[in-house]
Amino acid sequence: MGPIVCAYQDGLLDKVLDKGIVLIDRRKVLGVGSFGEYHITANSLGKVFLECLEKIKKDPSFFNLINHKYVKKLKLYSEKAPDLPVVAEYLGLLSEYLINRIKIYRNCSILRSTNILDIQQKETGLYAINIETNENGRSHTRKIYTHNIILNLGGQQSPNNYLYRSLWDDFNLSSYQDRVIPSGALLKLSPLKLNNVVSTNFSKIVVVGGSHSAFSVTMKLAELYQKASKIKREIFILHRNDIRLFFNDKQDAQEAHYLFDVEKDICKLSGRVNRFSGLRYNAFDFASKLLKTGQMKEENCEINLHRISINPSLQQSKFLKNLFEMANLIIPCFGYQANLVPIYDNNGHLIPIRQELDGLYGDDKGRVYTKDNYLIPNIYSYGLGSGLKRSEKIGGELSFQGRLDGVWLYQNDIGRIILEQML
After folding, report:
1. Which of 35, 145, 283, 391 gets the most CB atoms within 10 Å of its CB?
2. What pLDDT does 33 receive?
3. Is there a contact between 43 and 409 (Cβ–Cβ < 8 Å)?
């Protein structure tokens, strides 16, 4: 729904709807994805999610939206990071508000509980999207023909990625797969289920990665152990790259005595330090304490931070291998790969899609490419495990090489870039 929200904010929604759109979602509630499944806080303040409402408040039906209980609930988090289930409720409400507007147009459709089976190029330049809709226990298939496709299918943590990714040399986690739970699966566990999966008798847990997910996982485990019996427990966070912290500007970072590169770590558009790569809010506070000494003692557990060298010494390699051998649980936090659907050319041949270690490859306009680096025309992708790279138009620090991800970006910069190419 990001580009739709963007179009509404920019006064372009009627122009978009005049062309005709079809919104397809495998869920009944559109625009939410798996947000509500994660039992963690967002990486943005509550007021950031509400910002788009300021630009659409002239709409006559705005009063009902702004006074809805989900909006009021999110407003309670205006100056702090809200829980993701709270954000999910709001995004679902916002989507339904926009859908009521979309329904007015005869050449627009909303398809809920619908899966995309595959996409096929046609000689005419159109695409045929094969879909399957499930209604009242029955399913039926059909084709939709379109000029442009925007894919936002969410992400996955594939075992091929987190078990067989090299940590150093030829070492990976495949030998310990019976003790591995990827970060996404763990963060979706309710407190009760987490307590069942992560035994309070576990004495040693290894978290691999230095991202927001890695610190969210560690904080959840530390919170769990606060209520457990008093036996010695250790959590080890193993990371390869620098642990980066977000600051509003250079002065804030300097006052905190944070070391950063003025040329590479500051976004030239916003002045933010580590705008896209830095840890924020709860993760920021937690990591800041841990970075001071590399060790932190919480109630009933000790947390240790270790950096993995690309070419570790024999001594460090031995230490790390022993750590994995002794660990009761290993949690890789390696990000997400995009959920993809098969795309066929007009001869019926499967088109291999270009992917990278951090997800689906896309250029600074969100366009998708073949494995041989040929542009696939009029198909765009954004979202978890996908999306755009940093660019002069969107901004971001030069040192950030990952994917742009976040609701505000979808509803603003990313949505705008994709719409510009389609209108």
Report:
1. 283
2. 86
3. no
